[in-house]
Structures are given as structure tokens and as C-alpha cells.
Amino acid sequence: MKYIVCVKQVPDTSGKVAVKEDGTMDRSKMATIINPDDLNAVEAALTLKDKNPEAKVIVVSMGPPPAAKMMHELLAMGADEAVLVSGREFGGSDTFATSQILAGAIAHIGLEQDDIVFCGRQAIDGDTAQVGPQIAEKLDLPQVSYAADIEQEAGKLKVKRILEDGYMVIEAPTPCLITCIKELNQPRYMTVKGILEFDQKPYTVFDFETLKDEPLIELDTIGLKGSPTNVYKSFSPPVKGAGITVEPTAEGIGSMVSTLAAKHII
Ligand SMILES: Cc1cc2nc3c(=O)[nH]c(=O)nc-3n(C[C@H](O)[C@H](O)[C@H](O)COP(=O)(O)OP(=O)(O)OC[C@H]3O[C@@H](n4cnc5c(N)ncnc54)[C@H](O)[C@@H]3O)c2cc1C
After folding, report:
1. Whose CA is nearest to atom 38 of ligand 1?
2. Could you give the angle at which helices 36-51 and 68-77 cross, rounded to 10 degrees?
3. pTM assigned to the model
4. What ranges do the domains of the chain cover?
5. Is 2-211 in CATH node 3.40.50.620?
6. What are the pLDDT digits (tens) for 15-68?
7. What number does the ligand 1 atom closest to the CA of 134 have?
8. Burial letters for 243-261: b for 16+ Cβ neighbours within 10 Å, e otherwise?
9. Which residue of 22, 94, 177, 222 sits with most ligand 1 atoms within 8 Å of its CB, as the best mutation to test the pocket?
10. Pocket of ligand 1 (CB under 6 A)
């Protein structure tokens, strides 16, 4: 039994956003973190593994070589294997091409009857929430989004989905794909044992050569060439001013009214 978790390394949006002259994001100059929803997805897989110790948790990420550090952290958290999908041919992928490549990588790992693919609901940088559902479509898997509770029984899952105005509990056969939200769990920390032993666990890089015979992987369905959307421009919004504090006195209110009137707001 395998739990395959798709994890994305994302820019730390609490830090500075670096933009290149051509308007695209300069990821090499930005601090990175593990996408928050993906930590919930990893925790969901590890929790199921706690109940089914024979299961393997495999984390998969598509990204540049520095993403290796994130993979080490995930192995130290308890994942059994890590796969980094990395290659020049994959660069410039939009969500369509990203899901194509990740689906190809998952097909290469192989899916069996009781296996589950986990994704976060959405990445904090791209923010589209498209990649999980697209992977499910491309692998012809049933999918359950917005998972806030997951129970696995032989050949099926019971999943509680949180919606805006309530929740629903549905069953899905395995193999299937689940997208996870923060209400699902509290991600565990790396352990000292995990940190000392992560380098004894399998860590593999899938490049284009590794995946090129997968039916989903064609040069015109991946990378910039396989991406139907293009980034036109990206930029940091102007920093807002510090604001003005007005004392609740006749003088303070008077000054606020004059300022608003001078700006033609009132
Ligand atoms: C023309 C174009 C070029 C781009 N070029 C680049 C580029 O060169 N480098 C770059 O980093 N981004 C690039 N992007 C952004 C990239 O397309 C998206 O970040 C990516 O497709 C994921 O979409 P998202 O962030 O909306 O993820 P969402 O759909 O919001 O993510 C949902 C879930 O899918 C999984 N997931 C998403 N992406 C990955 C991943 N890479 N690995 C593992 N799991 C994942 C995670 O579980 C995540 O929680 C480009 C976009 C466009 C349109």
C-alpha cells in the first residue's frame, strides 16, 4: 500500500517578493517554505501509515534541485521515500503541464488497489487549486477535494468534506486522489531520529530521461511549450502607508474630516 503525497516548495510570502526585469518571479532570491496545505496532506498520509505500518509514504515534488532540502525535511518528518521531479524540460510549466508531469511521475511510481494520492487543496503562490483535480483527471482517478477527515477501510475511503455552509461525508473507492485543507490535522514536527536518519532513506530524482516513456510525458505537453497559459507580468503591490491615528476628540475628528474632504473622499 502506498500513500503518494504531492508537495510544492513555495516562496515564503511573509518575506520580500523578488521580480526579474522581465516581470517573472525570481525564485532564487526568495526564501522558501513547504506549501502549508501540503504539510496537512503529508500528516494525513503519516497518520494513515501509523494505522497501517506496512504502508509506504512517498513524497513527490516537481521543482528545481534546491528543493532537495525540503525533501530531506519531509523524510525527517517520517516519509519513507522522496522523489524530486526535476529537469530543464519541465521548467516554465503552468498548471496543465505541472499536473501532466506529476501524473506522469505518479504513473511511473505505479498505483495499486489500496493506494491514495494526496495533494494540498491549493498552493499559496499559484493559488489556483487546479493541480490536484487535474492529476486525478489525467490518471482517471476518483477525487475528493476539501478533505477535513479521512478514514480508510478495505478498498474504500470515507472522507468528510468541509464546504462553506456545512460538510458532507462521502465514500470513494481506492485508488483515489484527495486534496487536503488545514482543518484536517496538525502537521507533526521532524523528529531528532528522523533528522539523523533521513539520508538512509531512498531519495530519487526523476528527470526527463526517466519519465520520457510515460504516455503522459511528451515534449509538447510539458514545460513552457506544453503550457496553454503564460505569465504576462508579476509585481509586488505598492506598500501601504503606516496610517494615521486620530484621537476621539473634537479636534481629532475635525482634523480627520478636513483631511478626508481635502482628498475628495467626503
Ligand atoms: C507560463 C507559466 C510559467 C510558469 N513557470 C514556472 C516556473 O518556471 N517555475 C515555477 O515554479 N512555477 C512556474 N509557474 C507557476 C506554476 O505553473 C504553478 O505554480 C504550478 O503549476 C502549480 O500551480 P498552483 O501553484 O496554482 O498550484 P495549486 O493547483 O494551487 O496546487 C494544488 C496542489 O497541487 C500540488 N502541487 C502543485 N504544484 C506542485 C509541484 N510543483 N510539485 C508537487 N506538487 C505540486 C500540491 O499538493 C498543491 O497543494 C508558471 C506558470 C505559468 C502560467
Report:
1. 8
2. 40
3. 0.87
4. 2-211
5. yes
6. 777 777 766 677 778 889 999 999 999 999 999 999 999 999 999 999 999 999
7. 29
8. eeeeeeeeeeeeeeeeeee
9. 94
10. 6-8, 35, 37-38, 41, 61-63, 91-95, 98, 102, 119-120, 122-123, 125-132, 227, 229-231
139 Cβ neighbours under 8 A, 6+ residues apart: 103, 106, 107, 111, 117, 177
How many residues comprise the chain? 266
Q: At which residue does the C-alpha cell 486525478 appear?
A: 136
Contact 109, 234 (CB under 8 A): no
Q: Which of 107, 72, 109, 68 is nearest to 86 (CA)?
A: 68
